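Each letter names a residue; structure tokens follow underneath. Both lines appear below:
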Amino acid sequence: MRFYVPEWDDAVDSHYDFKHDELSTLNRQERDLDYIWDIFEPETTPVDGVLISREQVEETNRKAERLAQYGVYDDPVLSIPNWLPTISDCGAWGYKSLPFPPYGNEDMLDFYETLDVTVGVTIDHLVLGSGKDKGRLYLDERAFDGELNKGDIPDPITDVVDVMIEEWPEEWPSYVDEYEPTIRTDHTEVEPFIAEDFRGDIDTILSRLEQDSRAVYREHDAEFRYDLTLRNAREMYDLYQRGDYPFRLMVAIQGWNPETYSKAAEEVLGMGYDYLGIGGVAGSPVHDVRGIVKSVGKTIKQFEREHDSRIDSHVFGFAKTEAFETIGRSGMTSFDSASMLRSAWTGGQNYRLDNGERYDAIRIRYPSSRDNLSEAVEQSLRGRETLVVLRAYDADGSICDALESWYERAEKVLPAAREYLLVHRHDDQYDESLLQDIERAFREDFQYGRELQASFSDNLRSKLVKLLRKDTPDDPVPFTEYDELLTKAMNVFEAFPHAKTVLDESNVVSDYDRVWEVVRDYATWIGDDNLLQEYQETLRNRPWEKCDCPICSEHGVEVCIFRGNDRNRRRGFHNTRRFYDEFKRDLPKILVATQGDASFGGYETVEDYLRDKHSSFWTQTHDLPVAEIGVLDANGVSEWWEETPSLVSFAPDRMAANIGEQAARYQHLFVHTLGGELDEETVAAARENGCEVHTNSNPRDLRDEILEVCGQNYAASDDFVPHPPEIDTENGLDILVIDQCSGSKEIPDDAPIFGEEETLQFSREDLLARDNVPGIAARDLYTGRQQSHVKSAVRWLLRQGHDVDRYFVSAGFGLVAEDEYLPPYEVTFSSMNVSDIRERSAKLDIQKDLRHLLQEADYDVVFFTLGKDYYTSIDIDEMVQEVRTDRIGVVFNRELVEDQFDNIESIPARTEDAKEHGTIVVGLKGHYMKNFARYIDTVDILRPETIEELCRRVEEVPPQTEFESE
């Protein structure tokens, strides 16, 4: 898969002064800007492309004009490198509140051609749900400019109609005439709404507004948006085919559930599209994304195999690592998201090492615009002091010496500023009308110009600069005005260095103690004391030292400081790199190619050549979930959807150079060889750039090797798309049962019983070593109704020749095998709230140990016979993903989990189900397990739904079995 990052002007100052928190130049137009592709080398850039929305391009006239003049690759600001592909769309989220997209199809095609992007996307309209009885009403915001404002719409309307108010474009695209000719404005002035427009019963109001040029009313808006998106797809495809556009066209589809998305996919594939984008899932719950993508993926795979074709696919706004497996196995080609970038400044845990290891960057706040001068100076000094301490801690230097050095420098600043202003306030360089020019001169000419801002606030420097602009030889400002400002700052400074007061405490002995005391004191003072525990984790673990990306390597602890765009965006770039590394581990980037021959250039497209000259290779590879497929010659690998190169060559030197460069962006290169091995120089060039090269002359064997590299789940069958597994029971099953502890326990009367704190503070081995503490096997300790039933079921399964392992999730001791000995205890998750359960589970390593158990073993069936609180302790939605996709996992009352994964079966186990089986709900899961044990030998092939049938089977006269008497 390829990962695209949206372009939202996410750039940093190349020469930012971290020491003084200063921009390299105050004029943005003169600033050298770095985007993420400027900071990393080509082979390590953590994106595979850039998504450019028209909404963002036209955010300012300057940007729109610049990109129209230069295009996205030659633009002097963006400077996107030529090797990074670009996708451009219309930015549907930006106009979601409008009744129609504000663009026409021909207009968008021209826009893509002007920008010179690699891929253009059809115009979609987000399918928005509405829970209101009467549907959706759109109103032109410009009409609320008279006696009514937006809040004056009567409640009886907003109670039953989803009202969307947005500023409409001055002129709609021409196609809107077909749907709503009354709303065409043609640059005419919009008449304001009056109260009378919204008076009467609801049906009268809506009927009146249906004919109003300032309103659009639809009762079935979701269906309209869905149909309009498909109409645009048809029209734009026809226009594209008639034109000679230099970019590839992707079709965007919308829907509101997996079925409607799949139906849309079928329709657009029938139109002739070979690149399909799934829109509208950004921000959706991960289970919704899984369901939609899985459904669309199956539709695409079926089409590819029926038509011997390849369809690339893109997921807009997706970046959920927990859904990588589903996205990958569904064959998606690319996706985009800015969430990893945005996470750097939009909440907690904003410094990422991987999905499971994240930290809070330490907030060092700038003064607020509401602060008076004294408050601003104090906040700057406290922040500056804390920054000095953090940098000394990062450098393993003396914190006390660093503080003293800063203080000695800072105490020179205000006296030096006074002397400088006395002498230079009427210099020619301050005879400027723009404050920016005066500030630039002062910052560069005054020896401590940067330190003045860094330690004593931008507030103070700005006030001095404003006085300099007003101060002229002919009309001098009384110097007392300067003195008044400097004196206020000096009065605040007299309380510093403040940090020495906390460093003098007797318990402060190590560097960690010192930095923690200063950070704790600052965070408490500034009002961030709710983050103290998170800050401790960050300072103890020093995560910036664990990352080898160029940002952390160059800037160290600065990346773990939450303060301003130039730190926060760099941390966003770092987060994106760590996300990308994780993405590559989970979904290896694979390039597949066959060797070309002299006839290559005689075909119009690469796909035509592959179909005709390499049909066996194409048949075995066209549907694979890999980044790209193509043909290899001296130009490198030409991708399957491209036109063939105008000049075909097989010169070894050129081939080695181009393949080596291209392979640097991949982990694996698979080459179908034609009667010989790949040139050794080419292989060496690819491997030197970190890409493993695999060659095979047999297309079928090549396919198997590729699927094996994708992961064991892909090699489960020839059809790697997620599907329900089938397991042969003839030779017995390997079964794992994850049970839970029970409140009912077999404990000797005179035995001590341990509680929550003791079971955390001491290991079970320590507790068992105490006098008079009996050790009881877990299977015998728990005597609840469910546990007794499961115990009987396990014994019966073992007697039938099945292998069964049983573990308990214990709120006292974590994950324990049934034959492990435990001391008596009384702890249960059922008495805790969700946050307490998660905290205790983490301390007991329950998820870590269970994940390791599932990853290391190869069970055919895994039963999770747990209640709600115990599901929380293991994070069941995540844990079921550790069950191999060709194996079966069984949960209870978790229908949402079943909907997401074909190999997971959820069995209802509620009160009404218990009554059906003549038992109570507490013991129902155990009853189901006994049924499974009774009837498993009646089936030869086990499927997920078969397990539910066995567990829920009800017979008037159950067969007699040995465990009936147990």
